[in-house]
Structures are given as C-alpha cells and as structure tokens.
User: What shape does this take?
Amino acid sequence: MARTKVVVGLAALGVAAFLLFSPRAEGLVKAGEKAPEISATTWFNVKGTPTLASLSKGAKAVVVEFWATWCPPCRRSIPHLNALHKELKDKGIRIVGLSDEDPNNPKVKSFIESMIKAGGKMDYIVGFGSDTGRLYGVRGIPTAAIVVNGKIDWIGHPLDPRFEARLKEIAGK
Assistant: This one.
C-alpha cells in the first residue's frame, strides 16, 4: 500500500514537471498572438536586462531568435542575422538571439569568446540560460519570431526568404 502511494506520488510529480517544463501544449505561437516575455540569465551586447517593452521602445520590430551553439543550422544563420542587424538597426529593427545553454559550459564560453566578445561576428543582443523558447512553443531550432507592438507578426526559420522580406517591409514603413 505504501509503495503504491509512493509510485502514484512520483507519477504525479512527473506529470507536473512535464507540464511545467514542456513546450506550450498548443505548439508554436502564431501570428497575432501576444508575444511571451523574453528572459536569460546572462546577456551580451546590451546594458542591463532587456525586455520586449524596453527593446520595442522606438523600434518597429523585435526579432526573437532561438538557437544553440551546437546546432549547425543555427551557426549558419548567425552571419545572416548579423548582416540584417547591421543593415536594419538604424531602421527600427532589434534582433535578440536566445539560447537555453549554460554560459559557464566550457564549449559555450569558448563560443562566447570567439563570436561575441571578439566583436564583428555576432553584434546583436544575445542571451544565454534562457527558457523563453518553451514559452514560444519552440520545438526546433533555429526559429525566429518577429514581434511588432507586442504581438507575433511572423514566425519561422531565420533563413526563410520570407523572414528577411517581412523585416525589410516593416523597416521600410
């Protein structure tokens, strides 16, 4: 009897943990939905702790991109995102890259030193130790969301030609 209670209790804890830490049950956020807030334990290329509201101030759009250092498609998208950042930052477009990785992991630290701190390769805002992807329902990376006025405008792969076209359309307004 006591063993049954323990098993049932552990099962209940497992279900609770799954619901708490799993991606949104509905899947990926959709255009028109309110954008979940961003967070990370460690930030680069920004002073303080950014929020969607602070990044949106004076901006036409904020790109929230989910990626990881170990992900080859994510690494391929970095030069593209950096080029878009340089081209569109003065036209009201902000780009934020979020990774759930621990910034103290030696491989991640090495990446940070070579790609972020060295400058020129990843000049947009980058956050590590982020669980924001779960709130957006991200199940595959890289994934980028364009946020306009606090709502999802577009979501998909950052190398999809529609991503760049939509950003340039918003920047031109």
Q: What stands out?
A: Residues 81 and 158 are 8 Å apart (CA to CA). The longest helix spans residues 2-21.
